[in-house]
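Hi Q.,

Before the meeting this afternoon, I wanted you to have the nicotinamide-adenine-dinucleotide prediction in hand. No need to reply - just skim if you have a minute. The sequence and ligand are here:
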Amino acid sequence: MTRPPFGKSERAPIERPIRVAVVGAAGRMGQLLSAAIEEAHDLELAFAVERNLAPLGEEARAEGEPPTRLEHAAPEELDAVIEFTTARAVPAIAREVERLGVAWVSGTTGLDEEGKAALAAAGRVAPVLSSPNFSLGIAVLRRLLERAARLLPEGWELEIVESHHGAKVDAPSGTALVLADQWVQRRPLDSGRSGSQVHGRSGRVGPRPAGEVGIHAVRLPEGAGEHRLLLGGRGESLELIHRAHDRSAFAHGALEALRWLTAQPPRLSIRWTTGRSKSG
Ligand code: NAD
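Predicted structure with the ligand bound:
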């Protein structure tokens, strides 16, 4: 029999479960997170917040179901918010987190400057963690890339191919941007290396400048996500590939992050890119 990944029976009893609001509860990630929280012995689904349910109001909620509006939450009835929505939703959610002063795990990608500023503002009054990828495998991939950047001599170059489902609204993926940025940060940019990023190539782009990182976004009907790092040097190449077989990889990592975050002081921890990029 397959055990649920967050089985209640696997852990010792705890004093009080962490009361969690899932924001984006009807989404692909939100549904997985809600189910995993209901399974976990140390977590409680206190709020299931969803834009699509909001106009219905609290009175439309079935008996025994968690409340659907974050605005109705009082600070004393919640310990954490876990949010996988859209970049546009982030500033309003940040204001609620600031009011509540509870831990916030944000997995939303494609953040604009307003969204990043909103996360930073919330991070001044609450522990906030934002990452475009909560899978354990990607955390290890980042370390491997960091080592590769240190070990491989000048002349080695990086290209990234990421593949996701066609409903993904941002491209390239936030994870690809972080990986590209990480490579550029670790490589010396002397001897005329550009350190720029180019998103796809088409037309008469000319010879590839040394140090340029090309990022290529593939979209297919299905698939949780793949990141393929292609490293090339003189006479040889190396590939590092991470595949998320399903979204439980992100849900598991995000809930582990949430457990850790609820014990942290107010602070914003980010896993975003700071790199130079251009579209092509
Ligand atoms: P989805 O479209 O299936 O779900 C998003 C849900 O959020 C929808 O149900 C939508 O109605 C809801 N929503 C939007 N605005 C809202 C608001 N203001 N209040 C409440 N609910 C709101 O998308 P998804 O596949 O679940 O992904 C969501 C986000 O998470 C995307 O940005 C995606 O790129 C990102 N993501 C991140 C990771 C990671 O590990 N960090 C993993 C997977 C997906």
